[in-house]
Design goal:
0% of the residues lie in helices and 52% in strands. The protein is mainly β and 118 residues long.
């Protein structure tokens, strides 16, 4: 049974930092690309950061330079370091594990709330 369990969300003031963690079980972690997505109320889920099994990272312009994704294969865990947080970063953050063709496996965590407010 595959499980992705996020932690580390919470309330933080603008300009502050948070680190999210996603512990994976039931998958061969090193075979997957891992990612973080977020969904704000009334909006579609959007990409925040991805990291391939080879360590290549990708970020949208909205978080580039502020967020950093990293992975620890020994702990089957992926992290999202979020700095210089803004109110518009408020959302539920979801962890994703993806293994492409020919497997096409895609898994989601349950999400963790991040609220940026003074």
């Amino acid at each position: 049974q595959v499980q992705l369990v996020e932690s580390g969300g919470g309330l933080v003031q603008p300009g502050g930092s948070l680190r999210l963690s996603c512990a994976a079980s039931g998958i061969a972690f090193s075979n997957y690309a891992m990612g973080w997505y977020r969904q704000a109320p009334g909006k579609q889920r959007e990409l925040v950061a991805t990291i391939t099994s080879g360590g290549r990272t990708n970020y949208p312009d909205s978080v580039k330079g502020r967020f950093t994704i990293s992975g620890d294969n020994a702990k089957n865990t992926v992290y999202l370091q979020m700095d210089s947080l803004k109110p518009e970063d408020t959302a539920v953050y979801y962890c994703n594990a993806n293994r492409g063709k020919p497997f096409n496996y895609n898994y989601w965590g349950q999400g963790t709330q991040v609220t940026v407010s003074s």
